[in-house]
Amino acid sequence: MKKLEYFLKKLRTFIISDKAYLTNKFTKKLGYIPNIKTPKSFNEKVNFRMIYDKNPLYTQLADKLAVRDYVSRTIGYEYLVPILAAFNHVNEINIDKLPKRFVLKCNHDSGSSIICQNRAKFDLHKAKEKLSFHLMKNLYYITRERHYKDIAPQIICEEYIDLFANKNRKLVPETCRIHCFSGKPVYAEIDYTDEFGHEFINIYDINWQLQPVTFDYPNMLEPVSEPPLFQEMLRLAQILVTPFDYCRADFLMSDENTLYFSELTFAPNAGRTVISPLSWDFKLGELWEQRITETQSITQTEPAFATASINKKK
User: Fold this and answer.
1) N or C terminus: which one in the chain shows less Cβ crowding within 10 Å?
2) How many whole angstroms separate alpha carbon 68 and alpha carbon 77?
3) Terminal CA-CA length for the chain
4) CA–CA dist 166, 256 (Å, integer)
């Protein structure tokens, strides 16, 4: 059933244009018709980027393997979650050679992550079924995010990073997303999950002041102190996003002394983030001095990215 659904979505791309598809999804989700030709709001500008901006760097840096070379050369390899192995096919996975805890995911999409907490109890067959399906998929046909279309799919095995060891889970940031405009961090989108599985997102400025806005999820009302490495995270984000008019740099914090790069995001939520109040959608849009980089080559900003090392712990 999932394969049939995916095939129909792929077929749909030959019938409905990206612009028509994205306009329809935008209107249904956000409740207003987007002006994609001359965008003003943040979500409109994300859609404009997906349709018209063909910067090849987006594809290179959306690849979870290729981006590692960029991160290593710009801020340092120590900020990368160590890779244990990479595979082209699920049958290459030899679980006996993996540690007790690890993470499997694909390099070319979203939602494929599988966390193993105990190798002895890990359902490898089920994991292979999920990963096989994701290897077959091309995210472009599902979200119309064109920069995912030309990424060669692989499976990555990463070390497991315990973000919440001996901590109050509710007060520990799950993912830290730094929204950067014109190469500078402006707002931090911080994810939290409480002990009951309820999800929250707080938006802070660069001085850790909570902002009166929500992104898709409600604010966590309990006050949270500024993480010790927050300012360092902003500094690293600024280095990573230098080439872009807008980019979101995502990080993980495993403890008070360790930061890990997560990913660079060029089209958050495929341009359909529910921002409340709506005025903030346009406030963020004003910060984005958008430009088209259709013919920009990789060498204009960084040397060509080398193939990421595989089957080697970094």
Assistant:
1) N
2) 8
3) 39
4) 12
pLDDT at 308: 31
Closest CA relative to residue 177, chosen from 111, 238, 241, 263: 263
Which stretches of the chain are DSSP H helices? 2-12, 18-30, 42-52, 56-62, 66-74, 124-136, 140-143, 230-240, 279-287
Q: What is the pLDDT of residue 256?
A: 64
- 248 sits in the region (left: phi over 0; alpha: psi -120 to 50; else beta) called beta
Please tell me the predicted confidence (pLDDT) of residue 282.
Answer: 98
Sign of the C-alpha dihedral computed for residues 227, 109, 275 and 58 taken in this order: positive
Calculate ∠ Cα 234-235-240, nearest 5°: 95
Point out which residues pair with 200 in neighbouring strands. Answer: 192
Exposed / middle / buried, residue 57 (Cβ in 10 Å: 0-12, 13-18, 19+): buried
> For 24-78, how does the pLDDT look when each residue is reduced to its tens digit (9 = 90+)?
999 999 999 999 999 999 999 999 999 999 999 999 999 999 999 999 999 999 9
- In whole angstroms, give the CA distance from residue 261 to residue 80: 6
Closest to 163 (Cα-Cα) out of 72, 260, 248, 238 = 260
The helix/strand/coil state of 10 is: helix
Per-residue tokens: 32 = 């207003």
Using alpha carbons only, give the angle 262, 266, 267 rounded to the nearest 5 degrees.
Answer: 115
pLDDT score at 180 = 98
The whole-model pTM stands at: 0.88
SS3 per residue for 103-152? EEEECCCCCCCEEECCHHHCCHHHHHHHHHHHHHCCCHHHHCCHHHCCCC
Give 2's contacts (C-beta < 8 A, 6+ positions apart): 133
Q: Which residues of the chain have pLDDT under 50?
A: 295-314
DSSP 202: E
Tokens of 210: 């909570």
Whether omega for the bond prior to residue 56 falls within 30 degrees of 0, making it cis, is no
